[in-house]
Amino acid sequence: MSAVPDCQTLRLETRDGILWITLDRPDSRNAMSLHMVDELRRVLAAVHEDRAIRALVLRGSGGHFCAGGDIKDMAQARAQGTQAYEELNRAFGSLLEEVQHQPQVVIAVLEGAVLGGGFGLACVSDIALAAHDARFGLPETSLGLLPAQIAPFVVRRIGLTQARRLALTAARFDGDEAMRLGLVHFVERDAQGLEERLAEVLAQVLRCAPGANAVTKALLLDEQPLGPLLDQAARWFAEAVTGAEGVEGTLAFVQKREPRWAG
């Protein structure tokens, strides 16, 4: 199993094939500083090829997921001019791309503030669980700013019609509305329910072969034209059937037992 880097803005724990990543700046409601962005990107890179890590659970400390970008970073960038703002903004977009394409299953546990950059992280998770009283929103335009790196991922997650409404009104909404929009998959009424749902989802993920999950995720996110995409899918399928996981999975089915990765 890969060694994960030491971090100042994140709490990391690995157990039973799961990497638990907790955004840990509670005094700022886990606002996304450039330092946190850099640390998250380093963690993702460290485990990218590690199939012993089956899932990443992303959540926040202090009762909040993430309240958006760090105003202190923006103030420091102001002194350096437009180029610094561009680099700061684009770094977060790179993080969203990397989370989107991470081979492991990414599960977001959303509580408290899920705003701006936190909203963007929710949009690139594979599975999202929310507390019913979580507060979602894209506040950028109410501050005279743009959801520049976030907007494309919001559109892909919930569609253009709803993305336009949310981005152009800075409207706030709760977990129930997030589920109605298709942003999250489950909404729970209390902390115990959220933990039980998370345990259920993780048990489901661990029944799936890690390599097969990684390639399936790549297939689902591939945006090339349909014909070439299906050609690529056929090649991946043939490799899976003849690979170690395919052989073990079919043998386990015939022998009426759990495959090794689910044991």
UniProtKB/TrEMBL annotation:
Coiled coil regions, renumbered to chain: none
Protein name (record): Enoyl-CoA hydratase/isomerase family protein
Example GO molecular function: catalytic activity
Organism ancestry: Bacteria, Pseudomonadati, Pseudomonadota, Gammaproteobacteria, Pseudomonadales
Alphabetical list of InterPro entries matching this protein: ClpP/crotonase-like_dom_sf, Enoyl-CoA_hydra/iso, Enoyl-CoA_hydra_C, Enoyl-CoA_Hydratase/Isomerase
Pfam families registered for this protein in UniProt: ECH_1
Biological process terms in GO annotation: isoprenoid catabolic process
Family classification: Belongs to the enoyl-CoA hydratase/isomerase family.
